Amino acid sequence: MATQEITPVGQLAAVLKSPRMVEQYKGLLPPNVSVDRFTRTTIVAVNQNPDILNADRQSLFNAVSRAAAAGLLPDGSQGALVIFNQKVGQNYVKAVRFMPMIEGIITQLGKAGISAYAASVYENDKIEIWNDTEGQHVKHSPVVFGDRGKLIGEIGRAHV
Fold first, then answer.
1. How far is CA 33 from the centre of its chain?
2. What are 87's strand-pairing partners?
3. CA dist., res. 144 & res. 140, Å (int)
4. Which residue from 107, 128, 140, 141 lies 20 to 30 Å from 62 (Cα-Cα)?
5. % of the chain with per-residue pLDDT over 90
6. Alpha-carbon distance 107 to 128, whole Å?
């Protein structure tokens, strides 16, 4: 009988699904995010960027734990696992960090009772920003049909 070789992603999946890690994530994740969903999302993120497996493994587990503690998925929308060069002594090593993305930040603001939004602004969009006694206001009129032009920035607003 032939034995199947376990891939590096398969090895990572086994560690993430181990009883020790499941218990750790249960303690970190909010009730609305299941450990199974979080683990599957993490495995998909690594499959989409397998270079993550060439980075320092402890930094990967730390990054995944930070995502869980923030209650965000490393799905590319709420947050991302990103490789950085980290200086250790005179050398650089590849390290993984969890970086919240705009959807994740808005999710966290919502959990804190703050309503927020963000929008991409393109060259041909119309945007007005003004201040008055009630605060700052933004009116964004995107081009719905036709060429919006190049992305030139982001706008956002938070309200308690």
1. 14
2. 92
3. 12
4. 107
5. 59
6. 26
